[in-house]
Amino acid sequence: MGLKVVGAGVGRTGTHSLKVALENLLGEPCYHMIEVFGHPDHVHQWHQAALGDMPDWDELFTGYGAAVDWPAAAFWEEQAAAFPDAVILLSTRDGASWWRSCHNTIFEVQRTADEKMPREWTAMANEVIVRRFADGALDEASAVAAFERHNDHVRATAPADRLVEWQPGDGWGPLCEALGVAVPDEPFPHVNSTAEFRAMAGLDS
Fold it and tell me: How many domains is the chain built from?
């Protein structure tokens, strides 16, 4: 049936918590960067997408009800067109706290990726995050400007009747309203803190 939620928010905007929450609400898996680790054959497809050759979205997302986080968020417009009934979900946070989180997690992985990751994985991440998103620069001023530019572009171009803006503190409400489902009788999940990410990625070892 295709995606019901197209995530337009970039990494470190609560996307892992959203993955868990959306899987609860939809009863279907949610695509996230961690899914790429489980599907190494997807790395080439995302790399080619960053170079302009888009995948078959229906095929790539077979079995998934939603997609959030990088690399998918870099192609939210293409996915929104492919799944015209899907909610477009822009997860955000303030630029300063986003930078601190990214600087200590994703961007640190980027800085050391050549030493730890397969070559095509590094090439894909560089194309999606460094070049496509940040226009080649990951210093604080450039990255925060790219973050704000991305969010403003989503707000300006996504159809208003499909767009839902969400911040980590918003919890279940906006998601449940957009999807027309009841609010679960349980706390909203909060996972993948900076400390948890760094431990998972071995950044402090």
Answer: 1
At 20-68, the pLDDT tens digits run: 999 999 999 999 999 998 999 999 999 999 999 999 999 999 999 999 9
**Which residues are CB-neighbours of 186 under 8 A, at least 6 positions away?**
none
Q: Give the CATH number, domain containing residue 41.
A: 3.40.50.300
Model confidence pLDDT, tens digit, residues 186-199: 999 987 554 555 44
Query: pTM above the 0.85 mark?
Result: yes
HSE-CB at 57 with a 13 A cutoff on CA atoms is 21
Token pair in block for residue 27: 């009863």
**Distance between CA atoms of 171 and 187, rounded to whole angstroms?**
8
Peptide bond into 40 cis (omega under 30): no
Domain coverage including residue 41: 5-201
Say which amino acid occupies 37: F
